[in-house]
Design goal:
The protein is α/β, with parallel strands linked by helices and 292 residues long. The protein is built from 4 helices and 13 strands. The protein is 28% helix and 24% strand. Strands 1, 2, 3, 4 and 5 form a 5-stranded mixed β-sheet that branches. It has a 4-stranded mixed β-sheet with strand order 6-7-8-9. Strand 1 and strand 2 form a beta hairpin. The longest helix has 53 residues. It is extended.
């Protein structure tokens, strides 16, 4: 029983050493008397960890406790850095058999615009459980269950992952980085598939599985190339219109500065907005710009 209490206490200390809620609001904490494992060298028995404003500022056996800091006596316990889950659906799913509590995938094979942060549920019961076991940060990402249609899943690109801190009441408090990368379910050669008519797994000839893999890989390659082409075209279009706008703005500025205040109105222009009172300013017409 004492071993269990020591383990639970150590897990709680891990959380305090990374991002206690009070420390993020400017409070100071000092964990004293514990054996600290920094993973960068030998462990330090009887060390002190100082946290100011949510940041670890000092670790060692000869560290002084700041005045006014809340002291946490961890004698006989161990302090470890928080664990980082690099790929999970934490916060996106609750009960596997209750569909309305799962929001980790969408319909369609191509969903690069979806970001996990928009679906994270801060009140999920899985988050405090993971936090109590020492997990302090995680990259939560949408998933499709295995890849392409016919290969165990429904999405080749299910969306973008979000880096979250497991300590927070809202998504805004938990979000450390809105998007950390695009999730791609790379196709694989699968020689087994599930037959929904017989509810049994059946073996696929290797040649057929290889052809399906090549088709999926070709589809993914074409999608990536198409995305690159659209991005390049969009950039060229923006550069072209920026250049035109700058050129037009410069020409208009020159014409404005050169136009005398008593220049007669251009009679050829029609459907114009009311002329401004100040001389030298431009009026907008249907076909061209003219000056009063």
């Amino acid at each position: 029983m004492s071993a269990i209490n020591r383990t639970l206490g150590a897990a709680a200390i891990v959380m305090l050493s990374v991002a206690p809620a009070g420390a993020q609001n400017g409070a100071s904490y000092a964990i004293t008397g514990a054996e600290v494992h920094t993973l960068a060298g030998a462990s330090m028995p009887g060390a002190t960890v100082v946290i100011n404003n949510g940041v670890i500022t000092a670790v060692g056996t000869d560290v002084d406790v700041p005045v006014g800091a809340q002291v946490i006596n961890a004698t006989g316990m161990h302090v470890y850095p928080g664990l980082f889950d690099a790929m999970t659906t934490l916060g996106l799913t609750e009960i596997g058999q209750v569909d309305v509590t799962n929001d980790y995938r969408e319909y369609g094979p191509w969903n690069p615009h979806l970001v996990a942060a928009t679906a994270v549920h801060p009140a999920s019961e899985h988050i405090p459980v993971a936090r109590a076991n020492g997990v302090t940060h995680a990259v939560t990402a949408p998933s499709s269950g295995g890849g392409f249609r016919g290969g165990g899943g429904s999405a080749a690109i299910p969306g973008q992952g979000t880096l979250i801190n497991l300590d927070g009441w809202t998504v805004e408090e938990m979000e450390a980085q809105h998007s950390v990368g695009l999730v791609i379910n790379w196709p694989t050669i699968q020689t087994m598939r599930f037959n929904f008519q017989t509810f049994n797994r059946e073996e696929i000839p290797y040649r057929e599985a290889k052809e399906a893999y090549e088709e999926q890989l070709e589809a993914l390659t074409e999608w990536i190339e198409s995305a690159r082409h659209q991005l390049s075209s969009s950039r060229r279009w923006r550069r072209r219109w920026r250049a035109r706008f700058r050129s037009s703005s410069g020409w208009m500025a020159r014409r404005t500065s050169e136009t005398p205040s008593n220049t007669p109105r251009n009679k050829a222009s029609t459907s114009c907005s009311p002329a401004p009172e100040a001389h030298g300013r431009w009026r907008t017409c249907w076909r061209r710009r003219t000056y009063p």
